[in-house]
Amino acid sequence: MDKYIEMIRIRFLMMLAYRTNYYTGILIYSINIGAYYFLWKAIYGGKETIEGLSVLQMTTYVAVAWMARAFYFNNIDREMAMEIKEGKVAVELIRPYNYLTMKTMQGLGEGIFRLLFFSVPGMLIVSLIFPIRFSADIYTWALFFVSIILSFFINTQINLLTGMTTFFLFNNTGLIRAKRVIIDLFSGLLLPLSFFPEGIQEVLKFLPFQGISYVPSMIFTSGFSSSETVQAIFLQGIWVLILIVPIQALWILAKKMLVIQGG
Amino acid sequence: MFYIRMLGQYMGQYLKTRLQYRSDLVVELVSDLLFQAVNLIFIIVVFGHTDFLNGWSRDEIIFIYGFFLVPFALFSSFFNIWDFNERYIVKGELDRILTRPIHSLFQIVLERMELESLFGAITGFVVMGYAGARLGLTINWYDPILFCVFVIGGALVYAGVFILIACISFWADARTSIMPMMYNIGNYGRYPVDIYNTVIRFVLTWILPFAFVGVYPAAFFLRREEWYIYSFLTPVIGVVFFTISVFVWNEGVKRYRGAGN
Question: CB distance A181–B30 less than 8 Å?
Fold first, then answer.
């Protein structure tokens, strides 16, 4: 266990070395959120609420969805693809740790760094410019944190799956991009899933993507009732467990299939 | 002439390398299509809840998006310089570029082109066709000509802005995350600029003139006469920004000192 925590720490410190990146990042995220703010204001026009969300809740939703993304988002699928392509994975495999767990921990280190140095200051700045309502209820905050940690795991597991496809496809930049686009849309980052037509919503209920962005953002904006919240978090947990199965299966298969192309 | 021949040569080589990984190429095309579809789905879903966006109808917004795809496809096929800093400055690759007998920027354009992005233009035409038919838009004899002019203008705007940002690397060493985010900001030119407040509108018109890639030129074909002045400014802005960026690039190259070995 120690070595994995050490991995989180090292990634964190590595990110810290490049922290200047993030100041410009915050500015640009704010512009991004700002543009969505105006877009949503125009969409609402004179309407009080759409699908039970007010303009204020919608703005908060957009802001928190983007800021939470900074935490759960990582590029470990791209990193894995690179390591597999360059043959570095051979060295990784003989090291005394589980490659996939190690990748997850690196992602977590990155996520914690971004949460502290990006999301928190970013959210403060955004809330100064745009009307955003923070919940005063400590219970909501606690649930939100549980929820984004689960978001991180679901997203990372999907990334691991995508990364592992490199073993079989050799070059999967296209697939990685496709996965990213699908997650942006179906996780509820761009718009709350409740805005989709009924039929699509029914399908989305059976997919893991809602657990990435929609659930934490809805909890933060108090768009869920308390029973809905508990149910949603429970579902996130279930998905984290379910996704372990294909990851393990693919991993066993991948180790058998492994072709080192160089390195 | 030499430049055109080089372009042909590089294109041929590029196609060969891409066709080596055929399955990946297909997935990439599909992912491009998905990406374009996502934006379209966003518009359609949103208009399931409202009829007008500040006086613009659903089909008009879809048309603007379709138009935007065409110059954007042109831009993303040839100006993939978003990772210029890491790829060329940090790794010292620019040293090699500078020894080549063609202009350094052109050499990078050749090396980094991604011709498959051109398929985005086809999607753009399909989307415009769909929206245009629903709006009952008519095509005059001069429209195709102006269309080409506006598309090139829009692509030059994008190219100019991104080259200017790439040029930052010549003066500052720090890695910046501006580039990827700029793609996000570029997307706001797809929506009618009058939904934004005056500051953002000003920025999108004169500082990061992404509005000239989407809404302004598209407004001409939608016959929105109040925007005609801006529509016709498109090629001007494009040429001005591109010229400035090439000038800054040349200055930057003069300052460049190799980092690699």
Answer: no
Give pTM, 2 decimals: 0.84
Q: Is residue B137 part of a domain?
A: yes
pLDDT in tens, A236-256: 999 999 999 999 999 999 888
Extents of the domains making up chain A? 2-257
Q: What is the DSSP letter of A131?
A: -
Instruction: Out of A21, A47, A182, name the one closest to residue B175 (CB).
Output: A21
Give the minimum alpha-carbon distance from A169 to chain B in angstroms, rounded to a whole number.
8
Q: How many domains does chain B have?
A: 1
Alpha helices in chain B (DSSP H): 2-20, 22-46, 58-78, 84, 93-98, 104-112, 119-135, 143-171, 178-186, 198-202, 215-221, 228-255
Q: Is residue B75 part of a domain?
A: yes
Residue to test with chain B: of A21, A29, A43, A170, most B Cβ within 10 A: A43
What is the span of the domain harbouring residue B9? 2-255
Tell how strand A53-54 and strand B56-57 pair up.
unpaired
Contacts with B157 (C-beta within 8 Å, 6 or more apart), sequence order: B71, B209, B210, B212, B213, B234, B237, B238, B241, B242
Q: Does ipTM surpass 0.85 in this model?
A: no
Residue B260 lies inside a defined structural domain of this protein: no
